[in-house]
Amino acid sequence: MSEPATQGRRRPSIYDVAERAGVSHMTVSRVLNGHPNIRESTRERVLQVIDEMNYTRSSIARALAQGRAMRIGVLVDSPTQWGPNSTLRALEAAAREEGYAISAFSISDDEQSQIHAGVVELLTQGVDALCVIAPRASSLDMLRQQSTGLPTLVIKAEPEAEMHTAALDQRAGAMAAVMHLIELGHRSIAHLSGPLDWYDARAREQGWRDALADAGLPIASPVVGDWTSDYGYTFGKSYDFARTTAVFAANDQMALGLVHGLAERGLRVPDDVSVVGFDDLPDARHFLPPLTTVRQDFAALGALALQILIAAIAGEEVDGHDIIEPRLVVRRSSAPPRA
């Protein structure tokens, strides 16, 4: 008899099914994926336990009927950072709405071995497609050496050969931020960039350059940071602001540290220096002062990426490249420069 769903009870996982059936979770996954190299007695036992535990029965039936796993593998680089983490969570939410599950593999250090291991692990789970959240150029370079034969989408603003792409338009967001400062009257705008091995950091730096060039303003070398508040704080404490009246920081965390560093040396935001960030963290509106920044619609990105992958899984022809424009959110950290 099937166990009824009970309010407040944790839904059974694939590991619960494996434990009750006396097999590994990989065996359960292979049964769900219709893998041929499974003994019939094992298959029947696993399917019986699935029925007894009421383990996402509708999704399983759909998967078996369509010959698909209804699962998308996600390879995510630097998962603790705001952008990759938010993209992953948005993709998970979009997948649930469509009856898909997500299997994620995280990469941090020792990228080459981890990327290879991640691809192998996800393929072993019988995923229908791959989504790659690889913000560092070095990670994507290593991924190009892997061959999976599956529909693959990369979260990246520039088109990628033999892969689908979807992204938030980092360059457009940066240009909007810098044009806002220019329209306020600033003529010397510094840039505290992220690590330039990151595609997002490169695009935001390019947007800063393009906005200044379009306005005929001087372009100095950016200061390359590491995304952390500590780096922003050091920059704020040590940078020569004799002529600079505004800073475009490549993310809100560095902007937060920057405001702190400026305050410690007696410079006020925005009275002495205007500061604009990027990301619109949930706490950005509570910075002192509340931070002008660029908001990214991760929910829209997750939904877009998933729809492209589902179409590719079905063999439908889809556009190779889609992009979503961020939105500038003006708060009190930016103002016209003092005369």
TrEMBL record:
PROSITE patterns: HTH_LACI_1, HTH_LACI_2. Pfam families: LacI, Peripla_BP_3. This is LacI family DNA-binding transcriptional regulator. Coiled coil: none annotated. SUPFAM superfamilies: lambda repressor-like DNA-binding domains (SSF47413), Periplasmic binding protein-like I (SSF53822). Gene3D superfamilies: 3.40.50.2300, lambda repressor-like DNA-binding domains. InterPro entries: HTH_LacI, LacI/GalR-like_sensor, Lambda_DNA-bd_dom_sf, Peripla_BP_I. One of its GO terms (molecular function) is DNA binding. Residues 12-66 form the HTH lacI-type domain. It comes from Microbacterium insulae. Keywords: DNA-binding, Transcription, Transcription regulation. PANTHER family: HTH-TYPE TRANSCRIPTIONAL REGULATOR GALS (PTHR30146:SF109), LACI-RELATED TRANSCRIPTIONAL REPRESSOR (PTHR30146).
